[in-house]
Specification:
alpha/beta; Urease, subunit C, domain 1; eight-stranded mixed beta sheet
């Protein structure tokens, strides 16, 4: 069957297919040692045990689907490589793309802030130009990963509905989330830890920081009651997947579920994650949380959620290659009882399906040939090659 597929391809007048052999192929539910054939950007054959002369010999390395990252804030970090240093947008996009593909991510949803919880006006200024440059770079074939946009909408900013409406119909926008970053409410529930982080970053006194927090909360707490429904309505009108960010209380989850939000992203507590599961919501965890062994904000550890089966998807959040590391760490942890295909599915097939991309995320016939070659040394997975739609990009 495999030889027939190759022969038919070569006889059709098309270019020679990509044939990968002697690979440990990580399927959606199994690992097979065999061969994969790719033609015209699609997988045309997957067979165990086959040996084909002239195939690219993987020497037993892993062949995984290209990773699908539903949430990364990384583009903004390239636009602002240092505080108040704004980089050229195109150069920032190219640098960002290099790190994305270097993490094994072939499909990325760049999570761009729409509105802010602080008085920072620069985030609103850079939103349009960032989308513009991603559109231009992708159309020109300058990007190695495929980029989409995840609008993460801050509901305590009265400008958010206008900014969302201005960009939500752009073709690259595929995912929307609603978030609230006032201290003491969701992600930064522990005010003492939040104040301590700000003191280390800026050197201000505890009293000054606490006064500023109190003023911010007093001024902005009620804004979300009108902003959030407007953002949700805009996303639903376009039929985009909706995520609720940093759910902490059961009430946060119930609000989202009642709005028709299907995905709880980065729940901060075990109780919130349990409620999300009870409300039939998908749950996204942060891959850096796995790699670090806990939350950088003092919230629930993703490992604890995995132990209860409360994670469906992992996203890189702020470290692009963390998804690759997290998948192998999970698979190598006997206490979690995740086989490698189960762990890999969290960073490939599951996020692709959640975002409505049924054409990728697994190694199977008729799927896109977004593939990564992974070696492992001393417990560390490392990339050897990346293909997107059958073309070598790294």
């Amino acid at each position: 069957m495999l030889m027939n597929a190759i022969s038919e391809s070569r006889g059709s007048g098309e270019k020679t297919p990509l044939v990968i052999g002697n690979a440990r192929i990580v399927l959606a539910d199994d690992i097979v040692h065999g061969t994969v054939v790719v033609e015209d950007g699609q997988i045309v054959s997957v067979e165990a045990g086959s040996q084909v002369a002239g195939a690219l010999d993987f020497g037993g390395d892993y062949l995984l689907p290209g990773l699908v990252d539903i949430h990364t804030d990384h583009f903004e970090k390239h636009v602002y490589p240092r505080p108040h240093v704004r980089w050229d947008y195109m150069r920032a996009a190219l640098s960002h793309d290099a790190q994305i593909i270097g993490g094994g991510v072939t499909t990325v949803f760049d999570s761009l802030c729409v509105g802010v919880s602080s008085e920072d006006s620069e985030r609103a200024e850079i939103l349009g130009p960032m989308i513009d440059v991603l559109e231009r770079a992708q159309a020109a074939g300058m990007l190695r990963a495929e980029h989409f946009i995840h609008l993460r909408c801050e509901v305590v900013d009265p400008r958010t509905p206008e900014l969302t409406a201005a960009h939500i119909n752009r073709p690259l926008v595929r995912v929307v989330s609603v978030m609230e970053h006032l201290p003491g409410i969701r992600q930064s529930r522990d005010i003492a830890q939040y104040v301590n982080r700000l003191q280390k970053a800026g050197g201000e006194s505890e009293a000054v920081i606490r006064d500023r927090i109190a003023q911010m909360v007093a001024e902005k707490s009620d804004i979300g009651r009108t902003v959030r429904p407007e953002v949700v309505a805009l996303a639903r009108a376009r039929g985009l997947p909706l995520l609720s960010h940093d759910d902490t209380d059961i009430e946060h989850v119930d609000l989202a579920a009642d709005e028709g939000v299907a995905i709880s992203e980065f729940p901060c507590t075990l109780e919130a994650a349990r409620e999300a599961r009870a409300r039939s919501m998908l749950i996204v965890g942060g891959a850096p949380n796995i790699v670090r062994g806990g939350s950088q904000s003092g919230n629930v550890a993703v490992r604890e959620l995995l132990e209860e089966g409360l994670i469906d998807i992992l996203a890189s959040d702020y470290v692009p290659r963390s998804m690759l590391d997290a998948a192998f760490l999970i698979a190598n942890d006997p206490a979690l009882a995740y086989a490698l295909p189960d762990a890999v599915r969290l960073v490939t097939k599951a996020p692709a399906e959640a975002a409505g991309l049924s054409d990728r995320g697994e190694i199977a016939t008729d799927k896109r040939a977004d593939l990564i070659r992974v070696g492992v040394h001393d417990g560390h997975p490392f990339l050897k090659a990346v293909w997107r739609e059958g073309h070598r990009v790294a």
